[in-house]
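hi support,

uploading two proteins for the ticket. first:
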Amino acid sequence: MSDDDFMQDSEEETYDFEYEEDDDEDNGDVDIENKYYNAKQMKATEPEAAVEEFLGVPALEQEKSDWGFKGLKQAIKLEFQLGRYDKAVEHYTELLTYVKSAVTRNYSEKSINNMLDFIEKGSDNEAARRCMSEFYSQTLDSFQSTNNERLWLKTNIKLAKLFLDNKDYGAVSKKLRELHKACQREDGSDDPSKGTYSMEIYALEIQMYAETKNNKQLKRLYLRALQVRSAVPHPKIMGIIRECGGKMHMSEENWKDAQSDFFESFRNYDEAGSLQRIQVLKYLVLTTMLMKSDINPFESQETKPYRNDPRIAAMTDLVDAYQRDDIHKYEKVLSENKDLLSDPFIAENIDEVTRNMRTKAVQKLIAPYTRFNLAFIGKQLKIPVSEVQDILGYLIVDKKVNGKINQQNGTVEIADNSDTDRLKAMEQWASAISSLYSNLFSDGEGFKMPELNQIEEKEMFTPGGSRGNWAFGGGGKNRGRGKKGQITFPTFS
């Protein structure tokens, strides 16, 4: 077939295409999309106007779609930031109606979880926390009928954390029991498939027992949590567990294990990018001083980058003064950084470090003296006289100082032990010599000389003795015989 024939046939043949009349629908989608992106551009500069634009997106829908879901989601976040908590709750209730049909299950679960995380981070006042509690309750009611166990667990864990932040320990205990049951098998053992959730629940319960000072239950759960091998928990969760473990060991004055736990907690927080790593690093420095260790905690590879961090500078100066026994520098750092004691845990344990520093300073200061005033020591170290007396009393009872305190005159007399020690050493020496003499000369043979008679007898009956010769008048057969009736005694050369 030639090209001309082909073109001729094409002209004769007509193709009728059927177009659906959906121009209005397409225009509607375009309008919705334009309105959504226009609202996004207004978020930073005109948040109130942006809220109205976002809320206008669902109104343009003929039926619920992901555009309405996105618009409501953005509007709720802005309302929460603007403090319009009632409106945020109202529109969140509307948002939850989209999760059953308008958007996919995975997308809705991810979006709702991110929304709750956003609300949690911004809840810095009582009204915001009430709003957050309402969000959690509505989420649980909505997803209870959808059988979405993952979101149910995540939301309940967040709700338990909210109760913990509010110090509502009764509600926390009740919610934790419910969560533990959801993560267990029928025989009561932990379900390995829910190990990650179990670790989060353990972390919350450990935090509760740490805050309520219930060390018995805290220790039981802490050891149980460390034995979980069926999950790879988020580093932040392990940071929380290790931090609480360190505090537990501190309350037992187990400084070594506390230092180990605080280091692991810091490492996990650092990996998770949590700001709590700075506070835990301060706890690590504190335990180093309580251990009376000469090892600088900032020498490790993990902590070295924070040596010059301004947030940790006060603790760095404190441990430096402690390791150099510089009491004046130590006291100066404490007095200039009052915010250091704003943390109740540091304030509770720093007194022990200060006491150790002052005790060492007192011992060093009184070393050259045999008599001194308590007021003199207090003035030199800039501490109250009553504390100086307490420290000296402890040193005397502990036999680190041999002295007496005259409370009436406020003086201390140190006994001079130099002559006493010298006499004691001489007595020990004399006793040792006496014991040696007794062992050698009284109880044993020692260096006794043999008697003379024994020497003579031995030599008489030893022919050809080295000390002389027996001569009896001649040699041969007559050897040993002299003249008749005579005996010649040996001569010694």
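and the second one:
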Amino acid sequence: MSSFISLLALLAVASAAPAEIGARLTTPISTISPVITLCTGLPVPAQGCANFAIISDACVDFTGGKSVLNHDLTGVKVPLGFICTLFRDFGCNDSPGNEVILTGGTYNLEQGVTNGGGGPPVAFDNAASSFSCSTLD
């Protein structure tokens, strides 16, 4: 009899699980944090990539778990509606020639990028040590 009761308890738990999973899938997309994708290789197809939540106007140094990216960043995906700046130094130091500005899109830093969408391509492959992003207003 105890095995029958155990079986009933197991079935009750199993039948409740799908409702819980369904509830989590209905979370509005607006509550999900946007991410920047940073890659040690090319962004498409993804090679050595990791996603990082964007915290508007926060400086993120490539230290600790992100140190693998320090001076080894080649590909970047910036979500639409955002602007991100890559910096050569820790601390998001914005001295002249120390940064490159990227708006929503996919970038191969080996090819150089136009800083803020204008001017000649800037060489920034394997150069970044920090980044900061914010929304385009």
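thanks. also noticed: The longest helix spans residues 2-25.
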